[in-house]
Amino acid sequence: MKKTVYTLCFMCSVRCPIAVVVEDDQVVSIGGNPHVPAMKGGVCPKGAAAVGWVNDPQRVHGPLIRSGARGSGQWKTASWDAALDYTADRCREIFEKYGSKSAVYCERVNLATDLSKTFMKAIGSPNYFSHDTVCKGSINTACRSLTGYTDAQISADWGNARHVVLYGRNIFESMEVKAVNALLDAMAQGTKLTTIDPRVSITAAKSSRYMMIRPGTDLALNYALMHVIIRERHFYDVKYVDRWVEGFDKLCNFVKEFTPEWAEAETGIPAEEIVQLAKDINEAKPAVVFHYGYRGSGHPNEIYFRRSIMILNALMGSIEAKGGVFIKKGPKDAGLAAGIRKFSDQQFPKMADGRKFDGCGQEKFPIVDPAHGVGAMFPSAVLNEDPYPLKVLFAFRYDPLFSLCDYQQTLRALEKLELIVSCDINFGGTTSRADVILPESFFLERSDPLQMAAGLKPAINRRIACIKPRFDTKPMWWILKQLAERLGAGDYFPYETIEDIWKYQLADVGLQAGDFEAKGFVSLSDKPIWWDRENGIQFKTPSGKIEFASSLLEKHSFQSFPPYEPLETPQDRFRLIVGRCVAHTNVMTQNNTYLNELVPENVLWINSERAAALGIKNMDLVEIASAAGSGRLKAFVTNMIQPEAVFMLHGFGHQEPESRRSYQRGVADAMLQEATVDPVGGSPAFDHTLVTVKRV
Amino acid sequence: MGDYLIYTDPAKCVACHACEIACKVKNQVPAGATLGKIVVLGPKLMNGKPMMSSLFIPCFHCEDAWCLNACPVNAIRKRDKDGLVYILRELCVGCKSCILACPWHIPQWDATAGKAMKCNMCMDRIDEGLEPACVAVCPTDALQFGEPAALSQKSREEYGLSLLGRSRTRYGH
Question: Please, is A527 exposed, middle or buried when counting C-beta atoms within 10 Å of its C-beta (0-12, 13-18, 19+)?
Fold first, then answer.
């Protein structure tokens, strides 16, 4: 008997609403949830490939305790009790000597994140960081410095936009399905898409305008756009700027010198094209989205680049405009008294030493979001015992070894730890070097805490198990409670079943678990909620306005408009830039049987003329080297990349012997990237490393 | 294509290959083989401007099918009701004649079973009133499935309405 289950995907962090058809405990098909029209009934290739993991012999089949050297692939199987007891015993032993603050917890933000934070507060360690900070820490800080909202608290109204500008934001290869469809449908109705990228991505190929920019000069382009927009007075939304912007005069003075002619020399984009873009944007305003991005152009001054994008949105009056960038609305905006209740809001014992490993929200990174931390600091904090010895790592569905810059440094840090506890579904880099693995059930096999999804139409979403776990795996909410109990902190986990969790979460909302049966989610508003552009926009800055001159920055002695510093690439080297393809999620999916077949390894994109000068022909094996490390992969010789840049996909070069399909295929970008951080915004400078390339 | 057609809208296709993967999952296609294939031209620069285009190529289900005619053991059949061409797996002896005979080599080799396999347009799904897996999964609706006449009606209607919508004054609204 076939049944359809409405749940949430987790092949990537987007968590698309999906419909899973199940028969006899087998997945028959996965499609988009039909109650969400923008899914168009489909899923991306990662969603389609989810089934490849269900019965995969290369998954982690049950709790494992290391029996050989770290990374040797030698494990002994254990019962859950034995693995949890072992973990707790080792923790207690280490905490006795170094305190529980010696534990660091990192994860990819997921539906159990509230419980991860509860766990750390309950055991008394301030050391938590999420994947978010590594992916987009500086974007978060930039958005808060201007609007008081994080990047996660805003979004783009793709479907109503009339002109969208993307800076390396590869929307069509990251496949957030609802956003992709909204934008494609808008484009079919005439919406313009401008893509700025040193490399021709699929997004670039589908754009109405593509600008091949010199790597690391996006900020110069934006300053010149501002220059033109302000010079031609009517090009910005005067009324909006007068009402909502603080520090406009300072911006005017600052961008005076950044003419399009100056920017042409800096970016390689002709001055008249810059002026034309400003004209086109003006015609579409305020239905304009300058997208603040995820990745791309990650340099040590990234926060100022991200700020420049948001400043352009503000100049166009597009923040909280239909077809622009909107502030996500929550349950209170939808008229509810409260949202879902959090376990991490309980009263916890005060920590004796509140200093964090990363100094986030403290002296080292005063304005980076403490909700996510500065993950890039993890290896050096361990190696230098700064501010104190760190001995235990909980790596839950996150792989710092392949995700942070400088693989060798991270490897040394992992080696120095006394205990690595991993929660994973397959063998990633850190998992393969762990001391104990507590495997999570696959997303199709587990129910999770509810998701409060803020948006124009806020909703609460539910993930529910579609099939029984194929192996001896557990959901993370169960694992965390078991660990907490063994460490004397079980009281903070007042539940036995997922139904207990849902009941706790919904206590103040007036909904019940049964309300999610019909569609898999409950929408809290029938209509999109927009604030009144005259007087109703609730910016969360001290001034209640968009702060071009940022009180957040200036309070901590950072400048709002620091002098522009050109980025030079020496002639004998290349700037390594990295990105994603549609087949893979970061470093997680390379061993999935279907996705591995689709994109098994990465290649090095190199400009045809530069390649010819180096005697490199298409598909030659080349060696790429930086100060951090080196690797060998095939060259993709093309005119579709700016000559100063070379490009590779993130996430390859795996070294885990257990993951046989992805083992040593391609090169890890982490092996090459130097560990440089944006000191203000908190992101690693993923696109900053200089490399040499030679034929092998 | 029997009585059906799969139409690719290159403007909507983002070359994500979900169609191929859903096909492989549904039909248990081993690594290396691909029943339905999305063929992508580009991205490439044409006069300095990037472009790309795509076309989905399943089995064409030919009226006078080379594969069917070539099969020495009569393992390849054609459905009376809609002309879909399919392989009866239990009869296939693995001689590969169908692969050689097909001008596009569309039948695939299943090395694990030692038999040929081919796109049957997910005829079990069609019989349930569903679209083939490749079309159903397409996240952007770039693939459309139907009878040629119906697809033609739909496309013409959409195009006509868009013209009328764009030129309200000219058409007297």
Answer: exposed
Q: Under the phi-then-psi rule, with left for phi > 0, alpha for psi from -120 to 50, and beta for the rest, what region is A305?
A: alpha
d(CA A614, CA A623): 12
- The answer to whether A655 touches A671, Cβ cutoff 8 Å, is no
User: Which candidate from B14, B17, B21 shows the least CB-CB separation from A206?
Assistant: B14
Q: What is the pTM of this model?
A: 0.97
Per-residue pLDDT tens over the stretch A133-144: 888 999 999 999
Report pLDDT for B50. 97
Give the mutation candidate from A597, A605, A636 for the B interface (greatest B CB count, under 10 A): A597
Q: How many CB atoms lie within 10 A of CB A185?
A: 17
Per the prediction, chain A carries an average pLDDT of: 97
Predicted confidence at residue B165, as pLDDT, reads: 79
Among B42, B44, B136, the residue with its CB nearest the CB of A31 is B136
Residue A214 has pLDDT above 70, yes or no: yes
B25 and A594: CB-CB below 8 Å?
Answer: yes
A370 CB-contact burial (10 Å; exposed 0-12 / middle 13-18 / buried 19+): middle
Distance CA A648, CA A667 (A): 9
- Single-letter residue type at B12: K
Q: Is A317 left (phi over 0), alpha (psi -120 to 50) or beta?
A: left
What's the rounded Cα separation, in Å, for the pair A30 and A9?
Answer: 10
In three-state secondary structure terms, A422 is strand
Q: In the structure, what pLDDT confidence band is assigned to residue A499 with cuts at 50, 70 and 90? A: very high
Q: Any idea how long chain A is? A: 696
Q: Is A571 exposed, middle or buried (0-12, 13-18, 19+ CB in 10 A)?
A: exposed
A229 SS3 class: helix
What's the pLDDT tens digit per position in A551-604? 999 999 999 999 999 999 999 999 999 999 999 999 999 999 999 999 999 999
Chain B residues with CB-CB distance to A30 below 8 A: 137
Please determine, for residue A251, whether its predicted confidence score (pLDDT) is greater than 90.
Answer: yes
Q: Would an 8 Å CB–CB cutoff place A177 in contact with chain B?
A: yes
Please state the rounded mean pLDDT for residues A110-132.
97
Phi and psi at residue B32, to the nearest 5°: 95, -30
Mean pLDDT on A216-223 = 98
Best A206, A598, A636 member to test B by mutation, with max B CBs in 10 Å, is A206
A210 interface with B at CB cutoff 8 Å: yes
**Closest residue to B140, CB basis, from A52, A181, A205:** A181
Pick from B15, B137, B141: CB nearest A48 = B137
Q: Does the bond joining A528 to the residue before it have cis omega, within 30 degrees of 0?
A: no
CB-based contact A175 B50, cutoff 8 Å? no
Condensed to tens digits (0 to 9), the pLDDT of residues B49-66 reads 999 999 999 999 999 999
Q: Of A435, A404, A460, whose CA–CA distance to A586 is shortest?
A: A404
* Mutation target among A1, A2, A14, A200 for the B interface, most CBs of B within 10 A: A200
**Cα(A305)–Cα(A308) distance, rounded to whole angstroms?**
5
Report the run of H or E that residue A605 belongs to, with start and end. Answer: strand A604-607
Give the helix/strand (H/E) hosting A622: strand A621-625
CB within 8 Å: B136 and A640? no
ipTM: 0.96
**What pLDDT shows up at residue B154?**
87
Torsional sign, CA A621, A626, A631, A636: negative
Quick one: pLDDT band at residue B173, thresholds 50, 70, 90? very low
Query: What residues in A contact B24, CB-CB < 8 Å?
Result: 594
Query: What is residue A135's predicted lDDT score, i.e. its pLDDT?
Result: 86
Using CB atoms and an 8 Å cut-off, which of residues 146-175 of chain A contact chain B?
172-173, 175
